Amino acid sequence: MPWIAIVIGLAAGIAIWSILDQIQSRQVDKIFGQELKVQLDLRARESLIRFDRYLSSYEATTRLLANHRKLSEYLEPLFWFADETVTPVVYKDFRPTWLPGFFERDALTPPSQVLLTDPRGQVREIFQPRAEAVPQELIAQVSSQFLDAREVRSVIERFDGRLYLLISDSVEDAGGYDMGYLVVLVPVNDAFLASAQRGLDVGRAVVALVDSDDQRIVASVDSRAIVPNSTLSEWSATYVITSQSLPEYEGSGSNLLFATFVPNASVEKMSRHVRIFERRQRLIAAGVFVIVFTAVIYLVSSRLNKVLKRMTRFSQRALGIAEPGFDRGGNQLVLLEDWVGHFTQLVMRAREEMNSQHLAAMRESEALKAAMMEASLDAIVTLDQGGRIIEYNPAAEQLFGVKRPSALGLVFSACFLPDVARMAFKRLLDRSRHLHRAPLDRGELIVLRADASEVPVEISIAPIELVDERFYTLYIHDISSRKHAEQEIKSLARFASESPNPILRVTDAGLIVYANSASRPLLLGWGTEPGEQLPRQWCTEVAIAVRTGHPLERELDNAGQIYSLLFAPIRDLGYVNIYARDITAVRRAEQESRQHQAELVHVSRLSTLGEVATGMAHELNQPLSAIVNYANGCTRRLQSGLGQPDELVGAMTQITAQAKRASEIIRRLRALVGNQPPIRLHADLNHLVREVCSFLEFETNRLGMQIALDLTDTQIPVCVDLVQIEQVLLNLVGNALDALEAQPERRLSIHTSMDAQQAHVAVCDNGPGIAPERLSEIFDAFVTSKEGGMGMGLAISQTIVENHGGRIWAQSGHETGATFYMSLPLAQTNTPGNDSATALKHTSLKTESLGHSA
Asked: Which residues, 6+ apart, have CB-to-CB distance to 702 below 8 Å?
């Protein structure tokens, strides 16, 4: 049997090959022609795909730039008004901070211009890396036909007689709000095509862009091989030309074709090689076919013999059937047929088991889907092909306010969508019907509730394709809370532009990148505009703020308007926010407050003067009485003729001394009462204490007591307003004398001391003291224990001491006396001047007066 199979195989192989060879010889030329056309079309298609991918790289890079963090952070504080007229900011010598260098990184031809527009297409900023100017059609406004807020828009168009690739994409700030568009312009020329066809062998194929109207070449990858401005007919003799339209750019004003030029010599060479190869392969295939066919027949015959023998032996052992010989081949085939029947039954049984498992899995899947529908937080609605509701989960019941039994069978768009939202919903459905296009991720719509209220939602549609019917599953998410939050964020984003106070943003180099309308007076005062540098002084302040990372506060006097400037650095982003506030009224109020305070101090001083007026009158009466006595004595001696010149001169000397004493007393009274502006002079605190004691000498004599002075041996230099500090000491000592008036035994002492930085005075008495509950309020205004007192003495004294940088306080025990303390900063003793001399002279005169009083 094997030898018969070999012979049959050889004969059958040769017969079949002879028939196939005749058919093959007639079809080979036809196949080659078709294959050549396919190869040429494939090469043209590959060139077009390479061109499209290159354009897609530009689109992807533009999308990356439009969504880059630097651009969104740059746009965050900006707010462009629709009615304002602006001149675009042009960056020529440097790249703006919002534009990273992605084109060079991605090996793309750098654009000639990059534009930043507002949502209406008005150009706000221009990046122009080369000298080539922006086309006139785009220098101020980009037409809406080139802009698309939903996706990247790319078009090849002519501007100013030149061909450009224009790519645009919408931009958002850091809060996710639309701020406008990023527009990239790239010249379409030989260099552009060469970059798009990188890796293409120019000797094997050349590509070019052709104007379909006049069949003229606009640009080619090799201008030396295919000359621009020539027509296609001029090259038909030397090239096989394949022209293809650019479907993605059919909506543009330029109707272009993408042409691939393959040299005829290359085609003929390929045809010759194919014919030679085909002849060689035909001979080899003939031998291989005959050999393989014969071998297959032999192997099948041998295998079949073995199977029949095994089946026969198996049937003999299992069923007790006698083994037939090969001369009776019918028994062997019957056994094989029985075995195949048994195997078929096993297969049917396995199929039934698989069907059972499949049905169980489907039931589990349906149960899982039902559980997901029930547990979903978003509304899920399933529609049939006619738009009627066939499934409806509990979240949908809660969203629309309609129970599931009532909702089933309703037309979704008619019952749950307002008129303005139905067209948008129809567009979403139409888009989902295109199987070759992915559906939109999400779309925002307005839906109606059962109570006719409107709710903003996000909706996504997933089509379900069956054999004869189509269904749609709607995933609906309530975005009411998000819309409210977005509105809050928008109001916060407009905070800077709506603020009545000036707000500016500058770079670390002092370049103004944003200034709101309230900043106009500051900009006029500085003589600068947005996009320009701050004055040198303020650039230095900006640099300090950025370097330290801490806010700085400065004041600016701008033509009578006083501004408080707060420099708030943002170090990681390299800019500083300047918040200005007009504090002119505050400064004027402070000035008026100081003036009122000085007037109040003067009134208090007059009140104090009234309290010591009796003592001062007594003190002034002494020198006046002495003058009268000496003058009367001199008159009597002169009238009697007994007066000697020496005696008269001595009397006159005493009159002069007493007159000087009275003059000094009057001068001190005028200094105490006068309302002159505060003048601080260098003085000895011990001299001031002694002078105050001289003012109160009459009171101490009236009470029959003396003030114990415990003063330092050396001078205590202080720089103070002499009249005000004397007023404080006068109040403290006068209060102590008032407290001692009812005491049977009176003691009053004044102690002075100093340390490295402070001078100290303590006034101690043994009066009734101050109750603990009143000790914390004695320095408050209008608090007094005197009958008829105003309660302003200690309050004014505290204000005077604090204005001098000092401190005043009191300590007391009930019925054990009180001690008032005052501390003042020491004066700089190493800077002598006229003020010190004046103070020493002033204190010396007071000392002289004190000596005469004593």
From this structure: 615
